[in-house]
Backbone:
């Protein structure tokens, strides 16, 4: 007889774990399957963008995540060199973690970035998420298990799971199944969905076959680069090579991105040492801790994000080049959208068409973000570097000035993508009550707006700037109706309509002129994922009809 649970999740990486933790926050149990026994301790991306940090805050651990990665006083600059320890071509200066949080502490009431971007490698955060999952009683863990078969019908999904070593098998029955199982997703392939987009990019760097190398180099900072030239990311550009070295702990551990000589290259420790020593022109001692091959230049999005009772999220539906750091963050935002919809269905208050809105809301965001990341990769690959660049000569100085100007003008936007981070919008969604024209989409600039479809604009609700002081800290688990302005607002009929439909609703009154000015309306309905669903200067004559719309009952 099959075991039963509301939600099955295939893939225990950061996206799968975040989905499980979001569901648990809503009180929904899940079973998490992962082929490997543990999370893999190998460096990946180091960017947790402002929106992901807001999601961590909702789950109660943004402060802990900020304690990981680079020390609070370590520069997060991006520096470009002819060689490590050689000529510095350009530097994109960015604040340290301490400086970012000092800005938050002194920010005005309507400051839009309560949780600034944080640099901590994914491997540290994955281990932390894994510990959270272990401690969460609503998550049943099946690490070291793979899903071997799935079959859905109109009421649920049957799954056969096997231990990865073949020693045991289990049958499960779920109301919904979600594939968060990466680029080679079993779930996506079982549904028959293909990727579309760009599979490769042929250029000198950030294109084609690449290697991610995990290194320990104790003397790199004190003896080669120099502590006065510390950065988060070091890019080497010369006539012979391109490479990126990312500081993981601010001291002796690094992630090296290098171009593989050919598509069939097997990672070799000695070759990596020679490559990096060429970039430093020293015999610096290097301990190679691991390698991972990957393909740069991809911008792939699945043709569908789900079918029936089976959904997909993360790399299973979108594959990125890491420029911009958009990949994992887009996957985490997928789970914020999907989790409340699944919870609504399991708890019985979601409409028949609610889950079907996941794809039309999230797929355009995946296309937008993968396109932006690929464009940045093309810019990086086009960096000019002639044979005189590394020479101590007037010609060399002129070449360095030319390239430095190019870098400063062309690459800063990779690290200033607040529009990508906070600007996802669900305009045209069947569960959004449109009202007004949204701000123009811009990868760099985020414009706060209460036009339904976008992230609810942020504001501080008291003199503090810590946990508990943000509007986001006071939103409910379900929908939240904001009643704004100094005049009394009567929302009794709206509250009664939500109770009649068993829709979770909190009412939050904010008698603050700055809040009313920011939102431009007296009433604003915010979804569980913090996106605006509706706004108005008066309560709707038929609140039950609006509620039916925003929960997908009018679209099924």
Residues:
């Amino acid at each position: 007889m099959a075991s039963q649970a509301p939600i099955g999740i295939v893939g225990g990486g950061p996206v799968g774990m975040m989905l499980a933790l979001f569901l648990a926050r809503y009180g929904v149990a899940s079973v998490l399957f992962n082929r490997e026994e543990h999370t893999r301790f190998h460096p990946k991306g180091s960017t947790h963008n402002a929106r992901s940090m807001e999601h961590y805050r909702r789950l109660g651990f943004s402060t802990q995540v900020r304690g990981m990665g680079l020390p609070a006083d370590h520069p997060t600059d991006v520096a470009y060199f002819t060689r490590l320890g050689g000529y510095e071509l350009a530097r994109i200066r960015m604040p340290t973690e301490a400086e970012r949080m000092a800005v938050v502490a002194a920010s005005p009431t309507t400051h839009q970035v309560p949780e600034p971007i944080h640099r901590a490698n994914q491997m540290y955060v994955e281990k932390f998420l894994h510990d959270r999952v272990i401690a969460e009683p609503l998550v049943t863990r099946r690490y070291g298990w793979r899903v071997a078969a799935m079959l859905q019908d109109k009421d649920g999904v049957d799954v056969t799971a096997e231990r990865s070593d073949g020693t045991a098998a289990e049958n499960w029955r779920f109301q919904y199944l979600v594939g968060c199982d990466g680029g080679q997703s079993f779930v996506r392939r079982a549904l028959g969905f293909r990727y579309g987009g760009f599979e490769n990019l042929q250029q000198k760097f950030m294109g084609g076959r690449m290697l991610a190398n995990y290194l320990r180099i104790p003397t790199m900072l004190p003896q080669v680069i120099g502590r006065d030239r510390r950065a988060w990311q070091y890019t080497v550009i010369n006539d012979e090579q391109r490479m990126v070295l990312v500081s993981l702990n601010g001291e002796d551990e690094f992630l090296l991105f290098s171009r593989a000589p050919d598509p069939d290259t097997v990672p070799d420790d000695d070759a990596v040492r020679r490559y990096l020593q060429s970039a430093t022109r020293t015999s610096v001692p290097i301990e190679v801790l691991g390698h991972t091959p990957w393909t740069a230049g991809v911008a792939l999005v699945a043709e569908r994000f789900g079918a029936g009772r089976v959904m997909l999220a993360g790399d299973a539906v979108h594959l990125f080049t890491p420029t911009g750091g958009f990949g994992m963050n887009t996957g985490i935002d997928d789970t914020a959208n999907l989790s409340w919809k699944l919870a609504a269905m399991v708890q019985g208050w979601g409409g028949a068409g609610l889950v079907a809105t996941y794809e039309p809301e999230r797929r355009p965001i995946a296309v937008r973000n993968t396109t932006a990341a690929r464009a940045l990769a093309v810019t990086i690959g086009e960096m000019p570097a002639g044979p005189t660049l590394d020479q101590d000569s007037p010609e060399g100085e002129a070449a360095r000035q030319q390239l430095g100007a190019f870098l400063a003008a062309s690459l800063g936007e990779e690290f200033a993508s607040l529009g990508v981070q906070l600007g996802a919008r669900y305009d045209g969604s069947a569960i959004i009550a449109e009202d007004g024209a949204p701000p123009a989409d811009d990868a760099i600039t985020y414009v706060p707006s209460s036009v339904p479809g976008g992230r609810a604009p942020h504001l501080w609700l008291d003199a503090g700037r810590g946990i508990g002081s943000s509007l986001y800290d006071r939103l409910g688990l379900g929908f939240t109706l904001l009643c704004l302005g100094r005049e009394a607002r009567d929302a009794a009929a709206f509250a009664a309509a939500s109770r009649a439909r068993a829709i979770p609703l909190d009412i939050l009154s904010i008698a603050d002129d700055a809040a009313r000015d920011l939102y431009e309306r007296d009433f604003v309905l915010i979804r569980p994922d913090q996106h605006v669903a509706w706004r108005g200067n008066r309560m709707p004559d038929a609140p039950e009809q609006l509620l039916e719309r925003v929960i997908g009952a009018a679209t099924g």
About this structure: The domain at 425-550 is CATH 3.40.30.120 (Glutaredoxin). The mean pLDDT is 91. The longest helix spans residues 358-381.
